Amino acid sequence: MSASPKALLTLVVALGFLAVWFWGPPVWAQKTETPCEYPVVSAKIGEHCTVCGVALTEEDVALIVRGRRVPLNKEMVDTFLNDQEKYFSEKQPKGALFQEELQAPAGVAQGGISRGWFLFGLYVLAGLIGGGLSAYNAVSKGLRSIPYFFIGFFINVLGYLYVLTRPSQAAEGTIPAGLVKVPTTQAPSACPACGNTNHPSARLCAACGVTLRPTRQSEVARI
Amino acid sequence: MPGKQPQLSFGAKIKQPIVAVLNSGLFIIGDLAGAPVIKYAMAQGYEVIEHIATLPGAIGGSDPEVYDVVVIGAGAAGLNAALQAKERGMRYLVLEKEQIANTIENFPEGKWVYAEPDSQPPKGKLWLDGASKEDLTWRWHQIIQENQLNLHTMEGVTACEKKDSIFNIKTPRGDYRSKRIVLATGQRGNPRKLEVRGEERERVYHRLYSPRKYKNENIIVVGGGNSAIEAAITLSEQNRVFLSYRGSEFSRIFKDNERKLHEQIAAGKIEPLLNSNVVEFGEQEATLKINRGGSEETRRIPYNHAFVLIGADVPRQFLKALGLKMENEWEGSLWRSLVLTLVGFLGLWIFGGRFGGHAALGGLDLSILPSWIGILVWAAGLTGLVRFGLKGDRFAWLGLSFFVWYTVYGVKIGKGEEFWPYRDWGYKFLSFFNRPWSFWYTVLYTTLMTVFGLQALKRWGLDRKDKFQIWRYVSLLSFQWIFFFLVPEFLFQYAVKYQWVGEKLASDPVFAQQAWRSYGLIYAWPLFFYTFFYNPHQIWVVWGVLLTFVIIPVLVLFHGKRYCSWICGCGGLAETFGDRWRHLAPKGKRSIKWEWMNLVVLIFAAVVTVLVLAKDTYASIADPADLGIRLYRLIADIWLVGILPVTLYPFLGGKVWCRYWCPLAKLMHLQSRLFTKLKWSKFKIVANDKCIGCNECSRNCQVGIDVMNFALKQDVLDNQQTSCIGCGICVSACPMDVLSFGPLVQISSQPLSRQAA
């Protein structure tokens, strides 16, 4: 029994997502850190200790952790380092709409950045682009657009590659809808004798009866 | 928000051809269901029978007196339906109140009937090709005879009711019973009347069959559409014609008709009487009242014949009797809906007292009431709205819509500033699963856009195989997901946390703590009002200047206002969630006049921005600047961009904020108008000569442009005369492929053979 290439590729993509889910962002995106090696600078007047909340003086310190300033009472540095994830999480930036001018009321949890939401968003985005590319290509090839959109949406790159391998079909019974249409009807013919406007297939002027030279064949005559 | 009854949309749904009344067995097809082209109407007739044939118990039955289907109307759709019903072996009957193909029979003699679109083969057994009306109807009569269709002419339906899942249909000649009804009456068969004295006289007509039989007579033609103009032009060749029209200009006529009309007026053969109304057709004279710039003049015109050609009336009473609703009709009670909406809020006010809200009313503390009473009151209000809404009360749907969006936006403001009745508890209450409501708002917004965006993408892109619309909707949704979800909610934070933007920038609290500024990556000032203040990092200032004053103008130069229909999240919600109601967008000159409001918002934003930037230098303007910000935030950022427009989506067709209040849309419009005037703009829509006046383009325009007016005259549509946003829906909706973007194609009146020579 052999698995189809499509199924194998789907499995690979799914495993890739799971890997990112469990092991976090790629290595290039992460910074390694050594707890005791954070740069230390003086605290500023007006800052408060991240651990105990007391107002700080210039004799207190601020650690620069992952690029974020963590002001601390000098007695509280060890407390922070021993449970730094707990205290540091309060320093993490929040969602955009959770802006500093619109602080959440007391009691509303801050949430945090969820990797699950992020990956879901990426997946939908990739799906939209994959679906769009697949549908575009399907329309160009005269294939059914809806199934190919969803193939591209759910397995994006693979779906697009699948559409690329499909042979073209002659489009039948569809409404042409491009955006560079040019006039295709022929202009009406003016009667050389009386100036009356006649259908381009007319052989006689409807007004004066003069013989005309049709510029196109009547559709009735073709039947 | 639709009720149970379907709303009839006239000139409408090409790709949703059959309107089926929910669970009733009544199907509407043809012109009445929005197929303005004969070939589409025929296709609907074929498809509706194919659909009915798949339903349980569709064919045959124990009672031989019950028809499987009765078709009302013997036009293109009805005849093709009847032919297909016969083909399928159904018991069927066609009832026609006048004659076969009545609408086409009423065309002037010799009128050419087109069989567009050429690329789509006709469906069913009825014949169709380009032909004179006489040839076409002759062939249809032949087909009816050959197939021995069960067809009763001159037998109109007077009443119809459903009992025990069988329709009882009454006509002056008898009663019929049927399992299903196909309504194919069209909407152009009944000429509209002026309803003035003397209109019943023999010399006053509502149709013109043979214009050339009138010679050397005084003739009054009433109307301003193509039928009236064509009649006037033809009659003026051998008669003296007075053309009476109530409007101030002939705005909806073909380019060729306009040219001929001007020629005949210049030759003195037609006397146009604009701004005029016929008040009486007398024995020898007609009396008209003419508005001459404020003063009214009465004029008596001697006439031999008068032709009132002012369109057709939809058989509203008949349709209403069938339980159908007309599109955009306002029924119900505004006051009742208002009270029910307030009752809903009152319930939440009581409920909120248990969660930190302050429910005090006239010295009475309502928070002593148990929360379940609040829930009951709330449920009573909302249940009432839904119930009356289902009965056809449109105001009830308006109240419900307001309730939902007032909650969504009125709570988002947070920080104890929520709108009544949510103050001090709404934000906290809606912050589900350990996440703030503002996050859920973003999720809700993006989800709505995606779900309805996929529907709109299917409707305009996939179903129509329109690559332009496929990309446009993919673009709108992708911009939303990237720049209004992934970047501000996640990627910005990752960029700071993992120092993707460099250690220096990531360590700078002015940058790192203002994730909300990443909205400014796409939203230019003044749509993103706060670009230049609230202590921005210089990177945001540089980007803001570049985006607003360089990138946007260059985009406008090449693409007009396509930012609104390809990129913007506000426009995106209107294009996706609001797409189903796009036909309800206010149309006409009066609605366009109201677009001055976004200029006011633009000026307001500019003034406040200047005040805020200058307040550090001039302390005396600090208070007005702060007041300006508070007002702008309340009026523009909450009411105008949030609560009001989204509430009104189901009633005013989506683009409410974008069209009437968005300052960036106005800024781009001013730029695009300037570029067009200077002949620098690359944006325009042009038309060829095939317009049939079906109104699909105008009807589907979300910014209310009368596109058909441009198409009929083959005028160029650009941003000098209109606020077009380049969405291309008019181009896609046109069943005749009349409209296109791109360079103007010179339409010549010369035959192609001569052009080639």
What is the element layout, followed by pairings?
The complex is a heterodimer of chains A (223) and B (757).
Chain A: H1 5-23, E1 40-42, E2 61-65, E3 68-72, H2 77-82, H3 84-88, H4 115-140, H5 145-165, E4 189-190, E5 197-198
Antiparallel strand pairs in A: 1-2, 2-3, 4-5
Helix pairs in contact in A: 4-5
Chain B: E1 7-8, E2 19-20, E3 26-28, H1 38-53, E4 66-72, H2 76-87, E5 92-95, H3 102-105, E6 112-113, E7 131-132, H4 133-147, E8 151-152, E9 159-163, E10 166-171, E11 174-183, E12 190-191, E13 204-205, E14 218-222, H5 226-235, E15 240-244, H6 255-266, E16 270-273, E17 276-281, E18 285-292, E19 295-302, E20 305-308, E21 312-313, H7 316-321, E22 325-326, H8 334-352, E23 360-361, E24 364-365, H9 371-390, H10 394-412, H11 426-430, H12 437-462, H13 467-497, H14 503-507, H15 509-512, H16 538-559, H17 563-566, H18 569-576, H19 589-593, H20 597-614, H21 622-652, H22 657-661, H23 663-677, E25 685-687, H24 696-700, H25 707-713, H26 729-733, E26 739-741, H27 752-756
Parallel strand pairs in B: 1-22, 3-11, 4-5, 4-11, 5-8, 13-20, 14-15, 14-20, 15-16
Antiparallel strand pairs in B: 2-3, 6-7, 9-10, 10-11, 12-21, 17-18, 18-19, 23-24, 25-26
Helix pairs in contact in B: 1-2, 5-6, 8-9, 8-10, 9-10, 10-21, 12-13, 12-18, 13-18, 16-23, 20-21, 20-23
Structure overview:
The complex is a heterodimer of chains A (223) and B (757). Helices cover 35% and strands 8% of the residues of chain A. Chain A has helices at 5-23, 77-82, 84-88, 115-140, 145-165, and strands at residues 40-42, 61-65, 68-72, 189-190, 197-198. Chain A contains 5 helices and 5 strands, in the order αβββααααββ. Chain A has a 3-stranded antiparallel β-sheet with strand order 1-2-3, with no helix packed on it. Chain A has 223 residues and is mostly helical. Among the domains of chain A are: 41-91, no CATH class; 115-165, no CATH class; 189-223, no CATH class. Chain B is of the alpha/beta class. Chain B folds into 5 domains: 7-186, FAD/NAD(P)-binding domain (3-Layer(bba) Sandwich); 204-310, 3-Layer(bba) Sandwich (FAD/NAD(P)-binding domain), CATH 3.50.50; 330-430, no CATH class; 444-682, no CATH class; 683-756, Alpha-Beta Plaits (2-Layer Sandwich), CATH 3.30.70. Chain B is 44% helix and 14% strand. Chain B has 27 helices and 26 strands. In chain B, α9 (371-390) packs across α10 (394-412). Classes of the chains: A mainly alpha (223), B alpha/beta (757). The interface between A and B is large, with 77 and 101 residues.
